[in-house]
Amino acid sequence: MEAANYKGNNKMIIGIVFGVITFWLFAQAMVNIVPAVQADLGVELGTLNIAISLTSLFSGMFIVVAGGMADRLGRKKITYVGLVLSVIGSLLLVLAQGSVLLIIGRVLQGLSAACIMPATIALMKAYFEGPERQRAISYWSIGSWGGSGITSFAGGTIATYMGWRWIFIFSIIFALLAMWLIRDVPESKAKATGKFRFDYGGLGIFIVTMLAINIFVTQGSELGWTSLPTIILAVVSIVGVIVFIYYEGRKRNALIDFKLFKNKAYTGATVSNFLLNAVAGTLIVANTYVQVGRGFSPFQSGLLSLGYLAAVLSMIRVGEKLMQRTGAKKPMVWGSLITLIGVAMMALTFLPDLIYTIIVFVGFILFGLGLGTYATPSTDTAVSAAPDDKIGEASGIYKMASSLGNAFGIAISVSVYSTVTTISSVHISATVGIITNVIFAALSLISILILVPNTVDKK
Question: Are 106 and 51 in contact (CB under 8 A)?
Answer without folding.
Answer: yes
